[in-house]
Amino acid sequence: MSRHSQEDHTAGQLRVLQSLSRGRLLSRVVRWLTDTHGRGGRSILDSSLDIIAGDRSSVSVTSLVGALMLRGILEMGTRAFGGSLADIRENLSNVLFRRALSSVITGLVDFGPQRPFTPGAPFQVVWNVTRTCNLRCKHCYENAGRRGRDELDTEQALRAIDIMADEGVVFLAFSGGEPTLRPDILTLIRRAADRGMYVAAATNGTTFADRERVRRFKEAGLSFAQISLDGVNAETHDSFRGVPGAFARTIEGIKNCVAEGLFVEIAMTVTHYNLHEVPKAIELAERLGARWFMIYNFVPIGRGAEIADADLTPSEREELLRLLWDRISSKSDPGAMEVLTTAPQLGRVPLEAARDSTLPGCQTGEMIFPTHFSNARLPSQMTRLSEFIGGCGAGRFYLAMEPNGDLYPCVFFPHTPEVRIGNILHDDLHKIWRQSGVLRMLRDKDLLKDHCGSCENRYVCGGCRARAIQYFGDLLAPDPGCKYNAAAWNALRTGEMLAVTGLGIQRTVSH
Question: Is 43 exposed, middle or buried (0-12, 13-18, 19+ CB in 10 A)?
């Protein structure tokens, strides 16, 4: 498909989405579906999706009417992107998919067909549920160690979970600190699972060296374990994690989680300390049975600010992105381990591959869209869909929550009043998601400063906003980790203060 015809196709897709979100009749129908609640707090939209999926356990005249209307809307929307209702119905048997689709439809009404897209509620909340930790990691964004005095008690934490569930959060990830060390963590996991959320834990894996402990967590409702591994040997990992013996216990924890049937993701924060070990780390993760291998962007926050010199240069990050893309694009076995990254720059790599047939991964008839959550493989006519689903998800697909219930767009954001967007117990999450000025700013990629702001890939990438604010004190500043922002990186390297505005947390980083 030529660039011109592709743009025409995208324009047609946008017109359909706009008609769904702005058309008077359709808008009224969808708002009726999403705004009318009752029968246990469930919307007509949720009940209608149940019926379309074949679940008729809570059929009413209202939900039947809603299902008929919703079926037509879904037909129109999927057809615009080259799909069909049958494509959606295949997945509707999954309750989590229905929950996510409900959020997508609500977001289309509340926010319109923005590029990138914002759902009606955060798909994921990462909750730093405690500051307690048994390791002393060099890059810890939370500066974890001892329990905080202001951490929510069990009753308050259960209330917070109910609020998130009622709002439509799909995934709840308990992090920290070390979340498995919180005394009531099983109670919290059980409540989140009972409320229909997919429950994950981001852990250093050492406490899971006890297989019986893993079994108890799974029985409580834990489905996903993200386990950090920052090297392929004890020398690298233990040095980074600050405690001798951590590597052996973490490896044992990974094996136990795999053996107990949890979805295991191995996460690696890449710096100068371990960049050379990435290929072997991917091989090790695959041998251990991990389903995902996640490369985390290094962000100089918390204790990480003390090792800012360890950050990758733009050229090193580009080499890393190419390595990851080679692996992703050459994957032929659907059951093989997925390689992902939180670095939004990977989103532009397949588009560059499509424009330059000499790059790997340019396959006729199919495009791969790398995101934080998956490497979506879709027909080539849906290429521009990447502009809706790609890019930094901070404040758009996910939120972060501190041990005291304070909310931020991302766990890597500084804990300052300027970017704090509220508190789960004291503020209305529904209003925060729709009215926060910080979130609105993050979602509008046309506000970004150069080069991010003028980049043709800003909708699929947009840079890491946490890195921008940490380096320049400005949410809208360039991410200095990109090859297109080499000037910003060089200014940092020479200790030169850039002319930035915004939140006013200016600083000079000298290397």
Answer: buried
